Amino acid sequence: MFATTPLRLVAVSAGLSQPSSTRLLADRLAHAARERLAAEQDRAVEVRVVELRDLAVDIAHHLVSGFPSTGLRETIDAVTEADGLIAVTPVFTASYSGLFKSFFDLIDPTALTGKPVALAATGGTARHSLVLEHALRPLFAYLRAVTVPTSVYAASEDWGSSGDEYTEGLPSRIRRAGGELASAVLGRAVSGPARAKGLDDGEDAVVPFEQQLAELGLD
């Protein structure tokens, strides 16, 4: 029998305002990933959204003292133990926010090894969209996470836009990134049990996401 423990998705939002477009993007990505996971397997899916603004003081104290508060320790554990992670930051000075970076500075460099991660960012204009490639993707490569191919940037004008004949609108990009994260999570979660039960003998088995990247020469 397959494991009945739920799959766990954690979305980290570094938005500072309330309400926040960063939190909204995190929610929509989590919904897209959860919807795809629910459609493709019969395990429950738990989603947790972490608002770093609520932990800002605890993060600062941990950076200078080396001791996390109970709430921060529990949040770090939730992130490192999640089956899939969504990381969303507002753009500050052409990069991720200081709060976002400070939180991930507290994560052990090996704790996210192999973990599927969807990256996203919000900003005032589309000029900052490359922050996903020159800042966020290298950060998570250092943390040894497996980032999904589609990252999502949402400028102010993207909200409510359906795109045009040349550019996908924000909803389409969210669905694609959420679907890729779901596929990566399933590949990581199912590959072990499938081998143990011999499902790869005469049946289609899910290929781990890391193996798929390796076969494409992208590892």
Fill in the CATH topology. Answer: Rossmann fold
Mean pLDDT: 86
* Total DSSP E strands: 7
Helix content: 40-55%
Strand content: 15-25%
Main beta sheet: 7 strands, mixed
Overall 3D shape? globular
Count of DSSP-assigned helices: 7
What order do the helices and strands follow?
EHEHHEEHEHEEHH
Give the number of domains.
1
Query: Can you tell me the residue ranges where pLDDT is under 50 for at least 5 consecutive residues?
Result: 192-205
For CATH, the homologous superfamily is named as Flavodoxin domain
The separation of the N and C termini measures 32 Å
CATH class: Alpha Beta
**Helix-strand category:** alpha/beta
> If classified by CATH, what would the architecture be?
3-Layer(aba) Sandwich
Q: Tell me the Rg in angstroms.
A: 18 Å
What attributes does this structure have?
alpha/beta, 7-stranded mixed β-sheet, Rossmann fold, 219 residues, single chain
Question: What does the model show?
Answer:
- By secondary structure, this protein is of the alpha/beta class.
- About 45% of the residues lie in helices and about 20% in strands.
- Strands 1, 2, 3, 4, 5, 6 and 7 form a seven-stranded mixed sheet that branches.
- Helix 1 (about 20-40) crosses helix 6.
- It is globular and about 45 Å long.
Brief rundown of the structure:
The chain is an alpha/beta fold and 219 residues long. It has 7 helices and 7 strands. Helix content is 44%, strand content 18%.
